[in-house]
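I had to read the description of the data format several times before I understood it. For illustration, here is how one protein appears when written out as sequence plus structure tokens:
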Amino acid sequence: MNLTNNLEDNLLKLKSALKVGESFDIIERIINIHGTKFYLYYLDGFVKDLNLEHARRDLYNFKKEDFDSITSMKDLAEKALSSIEVATERDLGQIVTLILSGQTAFLGPNFDEALLLDFRTYVARGTEEPAKERVLRGAHDGFVETIVFNTALIRRRIRDPHLIFKMYSVGKVSKTDVAVGFMRNKVDTKTLAKVQEYLETLSVDALTLGDQSLVEAIHSKSWLNPFPKVRYTERPDIAAAHIAEGKVVVLVDNTPTALILPTNIFDFMQTVDDYYMPVLTGNYLRLIRYIIFIVNLMLTPVFVLLMQNPDWLPAGLNFLFPGEPYNIPIFVQFLLLEIGIDGLMLASVSTPDVLGTSLSIIGGLILGDYAVKTGWLIPQAILYMAVVALSSFAQPSIELTYALKFCRMLFLLLTGLLGTPGFIIAAIITLLTIGFTKTFTAQSYIYPLIPFNWNALSHLLFRTRLGVKQSVKKN
């Protein structure tokens, strides 16, 4: 539905759509300029009052003889307003959406279009370093909940005209802004087309939980697969590095997280610390991360398997086994500890800071000590589970950490019930799950291993030298 030259009809339609008078924060402001009334509609709390006052002064200072020569809203914006971000719009539905997004609509008599003035100002926190992605060296800024701020943080690092941000509106109710960032001269066109197709055809009411709602809306049929289909980051330097490599980054308004596409399992083995350190140190840290990855997945299942087959180990390693009989099967103890650790984590998130010490004493000391004394757990189970819990913190991706946790629990359950055949079955299920998992863009999750590409694989497995081109000026 478009606006017409009838101001009364336009106002009636707009007020009906915005429910003016029912909601206290939808403001109607009337300005009388040389005997002609103009109407402003905006949301309280989104508009910066000083900018609106400047626009009002511009109109009042406009001479009457010049004002009589105005023939369109675009003409009025060019001759009378000093505001930078000004656009015209005729579609009523689009005008309503822009007002609810924080812009100011300006309507006048005998004009079949409205002026949209962008005086938005959002309440935003500072760009502090994200707590889960802290680094020893390098930048210490992070994304925030305002999408324009996040694109600016990436622009600050990539000053290239090939960097493109395309904006989409997703959600019938929320109409959430979603920006897709990529390098036009480097991006894989198939990946970009797939992402754009998803966003243009996605039918969802609202992205109430930001990026997670977007991912679940697209991958609604694969909710049983625990492995993450995308990589999340709150660091602009990581997002900028992946864009420069030819990947696509998706930014969702109201969310301080960027989605990196496409993402395979090897991408989760890299952290920004690897590249802020020298090559040798970076490779050492990455090797440690690979070892921790294997320990996190296999330590407790292998211990259960060895407990069932003690003759597999030489006599000198018998100290690894409990010296006294135990009441509860080892694999059940590990499963109880898996649940208990998650319970303590949830409690720590909900516990006020002043009670954090009390939680540590109750959870770590009292429960652990008395669980051993009462026969529920053995010391070895607590020790190995503590190693697994600490190794989880070495993985920056929370989503991959929980995927490994579910695989580990599958190993424990099948190994405890079926022994060696159960361990083999769990290994086959895990490998098949990883092998058949597809990325956000329907590509192989274990590329460049399958299909094999050694150049790409070596870049993911090892920290290589950063390519820096230097030009030598000849005298």
User: Anything to note?
Assistant: Residues 38 and 102 are 19 Å apart (CA to CA). The beta strands are 26-33, 36-43, 86-89, 104-107, 114-117, 163-170, 176-183, 231-233, 248-252, 258-261.
